[in-house]
Amino acid sequence: MSDITTRQVGIDLQESDDNRAIIDAIREDNPDLTVRRLPGLVKVQCPGRIVVNRETVEDKLGRDWETGEFQLAIVSCAGNFSEWDDDQIIVSWEH
Hints:
Keywords: Monooxygenase, Oxidoreductase. The longest helix is centred in the N-terminal third of the chain and has 13 residues, at about 15-30. The protein is α+β, with helices and mostly antiparallel strands. It starts with 7 loop residues before the first strand and ends with a strand. The chain is globular, with a radius of gyration of 12 Å. The chain is about 25% helix and about 40% strand.
């Protein structure tokens, strides 16, 4: 049985200029993140959880960003959105 801290979570994102900045922000806040680029799609995976911080995304985009915009980038995900508010999104496995 997998431990929650080591089970991989993942998000598949559409490839676009804005989403590249979002991926850079996710990579900055999740040092164990693995990024795999495919034609038109970017797959990000991390053991345990993935954190998306609004402030980091705004720094990378160079503009204000609402976490609700993330819905436009997501193609699919492996895990649960265990937290989603105005400042942070967390994807993890909940038991």
